[in-house]
Amino acid sequence: MEWYGAKSTSRANGLEAHESSSARHASLGNMRTSGMIGGLGPESTVDYYRSIIGRFRALQPDGGYPHVIINSLDVDKGIALLDAGRLGELADYLATGVELLARAGADFGFIAANTPHLVFDEVQRRSEIPLLSIVRVTCDYTQALGLKKVGLFGTGFTMRASFYQEEFQRAGIALVRPKESEQEFIHGKYIGELLSNRFLPETRTEILNIAQRMRCEDGIEALVLAGTELPLLLRDTASPGLEFLDTTLIHVEAVVDELLR
């Protein structure tokens, strides 16, 4: 498995300085504890957990396993709030989930999904522990590669929103969305298939066709898989002349680096 992401400091990854209670480490030695907001959706949460363990063990071959607390939320509830445009309630739902992670002893947290970052700033504002943003670390990695123009795939909520666009624009990177009809296709397959653990070859083929059209017509150098189910469909797939930026693996590397800090 290839790991994406450049080494960076916790502040560059979007973690603000927070003091953590010494009591959190009382029974865990010196190892830090991460808190994952998972379930959004379930299959990618499993992928995150497996990848965190793999990355941690690769860096710590002498033994040990990472301390990870998982709070698995209800993806159907999250989608319903997004469909209804009730972003304030989504922020409440996520902030409550993060609060439980903090109470359970997490030193820092992260949301194992892209779309909930629509309300990331509000959730971080209300959190007593720092949160590691998938958008920030993906932007940092893309910038480290020297890329100037990349495409964006994700849910319709993510592709239509500005949170990726603004982050990448600040880094001097142009972000290209698919055509409206292509966004509708990707979103429909994401919600109707990928979140239900259905990864169909015909869906993969059509999504790769969209990626290649964007490479040829829009001049994108790489494609940000800004939906954590998309790597489950495309991770072992080659697309000539186009690199896939796997946001799950980029995020996982940052999480493990923070655990070992």
Q: What do you see in this structure?
A:
By secondary structure, the chain is of the alpha/beta class. The protein folds into two domains: 122 residues, Rossmann fold (3-Layer(aba) Sandwich); 112 residues, Rossmann fold (3-Layer(aba) Sandwich), CATH 3.40.50. It contains eleven helices and seven strands. It has a four-stranded parallel sheet, sandwiched between helices. Strand 1, helix 1 and strand 2 form a beta-alpha-beta unit. Helix 1 crosses helix 11 and helix 5 packs across helix 11. The longest helix is centred in the first third of the chain and has 18 residues. It is globular, with a radius of gyration of 18 Å. The two termini are 23 Å apart. The relative contact order is 0.17.
Task: Give the low-confidence spans.
Answer: 1-14, 16-28
Gap between N and C termini:
23 Å
CATH architecture of the largest domain: 3-Layer(aba) Sandwich
Number of E strands: 7
What is the number of independent domains? Answer: 2
Name of the CATH class of the largest domain: Alpha Beta
Q: Report helical residue fraction.
A: 40-55%
From the alpha-carbon coordinates, what is the Rg to the nearest angstrom? 18 Å
Number of helices: 11
Strand content: 5-15%
* CATH topology-level name of the largest domain: Rossmann fold
Question: Averaging pLDDT over every residue, what do you get?
Answer: 91
Strand order of the largest sheet: 5-4-6-7
Topology order in helix (H) and strand (E) letters: EHEHHEHHEHHEHHEHEH
Overall SS class:
alpha/beta
Inertia-based shape: globular
Task: Report the biggest beta sheet as strand number plus sense, adding barrel if it closes.
Answer: 4 strands, parallel
